[in-house]
Design a protein that fits this description.
Elements: H1 2-5, H2 19-30, H3 36-44, E1 64-69, H4 75-96, E2 109-112, H5 115-124, H6 136-152, H7 159-165, H8 172-177, E3 189-195, E4 200-205, H9 206-211, H10 219-227, E5 234-237, E6 244-248, H11 258-267, E7 281-286
Parallel strand pairs: 1-2, 1-7, 2-3
Antiparallel strand pairs: 3-4, 3-6, 5-6
GO molecular function: hydrolase activity
Family: Belongs to the patatin family.
InterPro entries: Acyl_Trfase/lysoPLipase (IPR016035), PNPLA_dom (IPR002641)
Length: 296
């Protein structure tokens, strides 16, 4: 965490991320305890050095846990979300007694747009061992390193767009994801873009990818699509080559993917048969906020 955080520009007001807020998320929303004392009692019973990290941590009372990450229009938005999740992941490891646990172990669905979509893809991509391929710290390091490169050349505002334009088969995202597709994730992932070919939003979904190869896309191209600039559409095809998309960034139609994730879960009875209503959902949504306008 320290190494990755060192690459972040001091102007990013990371200190506003409240430790108390994440304590509430950890104890109540992720583990299902309302009182910290109750959680402490349960955590005390865990072994100090677990022999094996569980692949997934069961949701409290059968609830579906949704992680939603807004994209925002700045590279800094992805950095702030990654810093927030890195702190949360580190605290989860400490409290659970499992140094190998990752954010993907505590959420059932991940949704993200723009830079948030890249984070969602990295955190839920499945590695060779069947676990999440990247920790939040590693994802944060990826964003921070490339942000720093852009800052040094005086192109900070365009750095993420530049990264994603290089997501061709020989580009940066190929080295991150290889040939992995939407099917190669540890849990359901939802990442939006806007399809110029149909003039409508398009939602990349693992559930759809599992149903048919016509909806399965390579993760490197999904990341490029959700971050593409309006004047630089990403031409992409599904794995089977039959579906074609001319994608621009998700901010055109779906900057906040939380509503799409909620709708997806409530209508996906195959994967979430017990999610009858919003009372069965636990949503953690990281947003980039709205700029305050001066009063006349």
């Amino acid at each position: 965490m320290a190494a990755a955080a060192a690459l972040i520009d001091p102007s990013f007001d990371v200190d506003k991320l409240s430790y108390e807020i994440f304590s509430i998320l950890e104890s109540k929303f992720l583990f299902g305890y309302d009182e910290p004392k109750l959680f402490s009692s349960a955590a005390a019973s865990l072994p100090e050095t677990p022999t094996k990290t569980p692949a997934r941590c069961a949701a409290p009372a059968g609830r579906v846990r949704i992680l939603s990450i807004d994209g925002g229009g700045r590279a800094a938005d992805g950095i702030l979300a990654a810093v927030a999740l890195s702190r949360l992941e580190a605290s989860l490891r400490e409290r659970s007694g499992d140094p190998g646990s990752r954010i993907a172990d505590y959420f059932d669905v991940a949704a993200g747009s723009g830079a948030g979509g890249v984070l969602a893809a990295m955190l839920f991509a499945r590695g060779p061992d069947g676990r999440s391929m990247f920790s939040v710290e590693e994802a944060l390091g990826f964003l921070a390193r490339n942000l720093r490169r852009g800052a040094l050349s005086g192109e900070r505002r365009r750095v993420l767009r530049g990264i994603f334009r290089r997501s061709s088969p020989a580009g940066m995202f190929r080295r991150v994801f290889g040939e992995a597709t939407l099917r190669d994730t540890v849990g359901p992932v939802l990442i939006p873009c806007y399809d110029l070919a149909t003039g409508a939003p398009f939602l990349f979904s693992r559930a759809d990818a599992v149903e048919g190869e016509g909806f399965d896309f390579r993760l490197r191209e999904v990341c490029a699509a959700t971050c593409a600039a309006a004047g630089a559409a990403v031409e992409m095809r599904s794995v089977d080559g039959r579906a074609r998309i001319a994608a621009v960034g998700a901010g055109v139609a779906m900057g906040n993917p939380a509503a799409a994730a909620i709708t997806h879960v409530l209508n996906n009875k195959r994967e979430f048969p017990l999610a009858a209503g919003v009372e069965n959902l636990l949503v953690v949504s990281l947003g980039c906020g709205e700029a305050m306008r001066a009063q006349a």
